[in-house]
Write a structure and sequence with these properties.
three-stranded mixed β-sheet, globular, binds flavin-adenine dinucleotide, alpha+beta, single chain, Butyryl-CoA Dehydrogenase, subunit A, domain 3, about 50% helix
């Protein structure tokens, strides 16, 4: 049976996350949107201290963690992404690493100064089709030598430059093997041959750093490969490398859905408050044909939000129960990306010129929300995953 109910202490943590989003994060959201590459140091310190006391966002694996992330993004999605911690790199280590590797690479995120992890898959010639990666990893004695370029790495600047950081880099150990040759490698901050090339200027989530990282004869210890180095891993089938990438996405896509919902709800709450101030009441239960256009629009926005939320909760709950959730993770991600795009766009439209102006955060949420329909698999790619899973087609049969 699916169970979304939270224990009292988890409910309290979600409440605290909302209060922090409202009182600490919202007031600085516009500033860091307009000062794109400035670092919110005070917030980072506060979030780091909280995570060390066990009260932070973390990556989390259950309903409570996802709801806290939704609240944080209700405050500001870009600032939420500056949260110190192992990030998507941590997700890859959790899903693909051994217990020893988890200890070695993740324990540091509970001690010392703030540090960041990141995950680098995308390349100039490879995005949706992750099996097309060109970055290579060649074994040389007790080391791997990495060469290639990774782009649009979330948190990449901090992970590559702040001491203690790490990046999980996907590279191929055998190009001729296609997907089976893909492997994740941990590259620690300060490793010779890894260079942070540039930080992107973006449409939205501007507080979050998005970097290009170059690897030139970058030597890492042999044991920094996550999972088996065998291209044909007989224990898990011949696409084990690619399967690890997908397992990582199964863990991260529901979290991206939660992020999307936070931004969508921010816009929805704002619109409802403004309408209330203008004396416009939403007459729930009234037949659709008798509603005003604005009532129908807001109710449509609310139903999109709620449908996406149910899908997100199911995917995240399954993850917490260690159940296979590929289909549900992609459903949640696709629906939430679509919902946040539509909700925020409609919110700007409903509020007229003020919705478009910088007086309010609505236009910012419209810019911020769109990323959820792009990273961790675009909306189209997640729909494709859903179609394949439901119809029983392989990726070769349905492209
Ligand atoms: C702000 C930001 C942060 C990011 N962070 C990270 C990160 O931390 N790590 C990382 O590795 N990557 C990251 N990315 C990259 C992101 O995951 C990719 O941009 C995304 O996967 C899409 O790949 P692409 O840009 O190459 O687009 P393409 O694959 O070229 O796709 C272009 C368009 O074609 C569509 N399309 C492609 N194939 C199909 C198909 N078979 N059927 C239907 N439509 C299709 C896509 O949906 C999209 O609309 C980030 C991107 C951004 C913008």
């Amino acid at each position: 049976m699916i169970e979304f109910e939270l224990a009292p202490e988890e409910l309290q943590a979600v409440k605290e996350a909302h209060e922090q989003a409202e009182k600490v994060v919202r007031p600085i959201a516009r500033y860091y949107d307009e000062h794109e590459h400035e670092s919110p140091d005070a917030l980072i310190k506060q979030l780091w201290d909280e995570s060390r006391q066990g009260r932070g966002m973390g990556l989390g694996m259950g309903v409570g963690a996802a709801l806290r992330i939704e609240e944080a993004c209700w405050g500001d999605a870009g600032l939420m992404l500056t949260n110190p911690g192992s990030g998507l790199g941590g997700a890859a280590i959790l899903t693909s690493g051994t217990n020893e590797q988890r200890m070695k690479f993740l324990a540091r995120f509970n001690e010392g100064e703030p540090k960041w992890g990141a995950m680098a898959m995308t390349e100039p010639g490879c995005g949706s089709d992750t099996s097309a990666i060109q970055t290579t990893a060649v074994r040389d004695g007790n080391e791997w030598v990495l060469n290639g370029e990774k782009i649009f790495v979330t948190g990449g600047q901090r992970a590559a430059t702040v001491p203690g950081g790490l990046i999980v880099v996907w590279a191929t150990v055998d190009k001729s093997a296609g997907r089976a040759g893909m492997k994740p490698f941990v590259v620690e901050q300060g490793t010779k041959g890894m260079r942070m090339e540039k930080v992107e200027k973006k449409l939205g989530i501007r507080a979050s750093d998005t970097a290009t990282i170059v690897f030139e004869d970058c030597r890492i210890p042999y044991e920094n490969i996550l999972g088996s180095p065998e291209v044909r891993d007989t224990t898990r089938g011949d696409t084990a490398g690619f399967r690890r990438a997908m397992a990582t996405f199964d863990a991260t896509r529901p979290i991206i859905a939660a992020m999307a919902l936070g931004v969508g709800r921010a816009a929805l709450d704002f619109v409802k408050e403004e309408l209330e101030k203008q004396g416009i009441k939403l007459r729930y239960g009234t037949p659709k044909t008798k509603l005003t256009a604005i009532e129908r629009d807001v109710m449509d926005m609310e139903s999109a939000y709620k449908a996406a939320k149910m899908l997100m909760l199911r995917a995240v709950w399954m993850m917490g129960q260690f159940q296979a959730n590929s289909l549900e993770a992609s459903m949640a991600k696709a629906k939430a990306g679509l919902a946040v795009t539509r909700i925020t766009q409609k919110a700007v439209e409903l509020m007229g010129p003020l919705g478009y102006s910088r007086k309010w955060l609505l236009e910012k949420w419209m810019r911020d929300g769109k990323i959820n329909d792009i990273f961790e698999g675009t909306g189209q790619i997640n729909m494709l995953v859903v179609a394949r899973r439901i119809l029983g087609f392989s990726s070769r049969e349905l492209k």
